[in-house]
Amino acid sequence: MIEKSAPSMTMSDEAQQQAYQHLRRLSVRVTPARIEVLTLLLAQQRAMSHTELQDALPKMDRVTLYRALDCLADAGLAHKIIGDDRISRFRVGGANHSLTQTTVTAHQHGHFQCTRCAKVYCLDQPQLTTNLQQQISATLAVTQQHGFTTHGIELTIKGWCDVCSAL
Q1: How far apart are CA 97 and CA 91, in angstroms?
Q2: Which residue(s) pair with 78 in the sheet?
Q3: Listed residue (1, 106, 77) closest to 69, CA to CA
Q4: How far is it, in rounded angstroms, from Cα 32 to Cα 20?
Q5: Which of 96-110, 125-139, 145-159 has the highest mean pLDDT?
Q6: pLDDT at 11 over 70
Q7: Element spanning 54, H or E
Q8: Which of 163 and 135 is assigned the larger pLDDT?
Q9: Which of 134-138, 145-149, 153-157 has the largest mean confidence?
Q10: Secondary structure (DSSP) of 142-159
Q11: DSSP annotation string for 117-147
Q12: Quick one: which of 111, 91, 119, 113 has its CA closest to 154?
């Protein structure tokens, strides 16, 4: 268990404390691996692959990392994004990356994937216009008419990220 120390906490200590609080708030069993992984995800502005996380946490074995990621995703503290390259990437939070909610929200927003470096970024979800909502509803209704059962919609915009564009 991580205890909050004196006011001279380092940023890492503060991030670990924040991760601990999120796990406790959702009644997720607190383990050192879950704290480490959630702390790392909280510090990122993009989704990270298992390999990137493993490189950032070299002392953690890969099975423990997989289990921690699965637990965080199941609890709604992280979401899994599967790219065209079939690589799973993880980002902190639910639909709006907010971990202040008391309930878990569905992961429904767009992503940007860089076709040069393969990094994936979550995009803020603007309010849908009435016309777009109607189009999506009509498309979902057609899928149901064909006997399909939908469980999600993915939107990925592809291009070059700011770093790759500058090359």
Answers
A1: 8
A2: 92
A3: 77
A4: 9
A5: 145-159
A6: no
A7: helix 50-56
A8: 163
A9: 145-149
A10: HHHHTT--------EEEE
A11: T--EEEPP-PPPPHHHHHHHHHHHHHHHHTT
A12: 111
Structure tokens at 28: 């997720």
For residue 159, which amino acid is it? Answer: G
Using the structure block, give the residue that is written with the tokens 């939107």: 155
Per-residue pLDDT band at 28 (split at 50, 70, 90): very high
Q: What does the mean pLDDT of the chain come to?
A: 79
Report d(CA 99, CA 140) in Å as an integer. 29
How many residues are given for the chain? 167
The CATH code of the domain at 11-165 is: 1.10.10.10
Does this model's pTM top 0.70? My answer is no
Q: Exposed, middle or buried: residue 73 (CB in 10 Å: 0-12, 13-18, 19+)?
A: middle
Q: Summarize the confidence of residues 43-72 as an average pLDDT.
A: 93
